[in-house]
Structure formats: structure tokens, C-alpha cells
Amino acid sequence: MTSGEFKKLRKFLKLSQKEMAEALGLKRRMIQYYEKGERDGEPLDIPKAVELACYALSAGVREFRFVAPKRISKKASELAV
Description:
Blueprint: H1 3-12, H2 17-24, H3 28-36, E1 38-39, E2 42-43, H4 48-58, H5 76-79
Antiparallel strand pairs: 1-2
Helix pairs in contact: 2-3
């Protein structure tokens, strides 16, 4: 994800930098760095975890709770018809 794509996504979601930071669990300053594409004059890549969190936001996910699937007692081969 490029810095331009990151900023376009935030604007598409109609979130302020502060709201985007809160949604991603980041500081507002990091949002500014990601949108600029640099920090202290050095190029800054957007981490994959942040990209994935952005994808989740764009899909409408605001909170995530993992629920482990129940184990199936039979082997998949036994279930084949």
C-alpha cells in the first residue's frame, strides 16, 4: 500500500486522521507519517499488519474477536461421498 492509497482510503472512509488512528490503534502522528510516506526525512513503508487492518476497516470490520472453529471428529476423507 502506498502513502497515497493510504490517504485515499482514509478519505473514502470519511475518517479524520484522529479517527483513523483510533480505528487502527495508532497515534495520529503515525497516520501523518504513513500519508506522507516518510518519517524524519526517511522513507517509511506501511507495515503489512496496518495494510490488513485497513482492509478490514474498508470491509466494515470495526472490532474483531477470534472464535476457534469446533473440531470435526471425523477425517475429511470419511466425509467424502
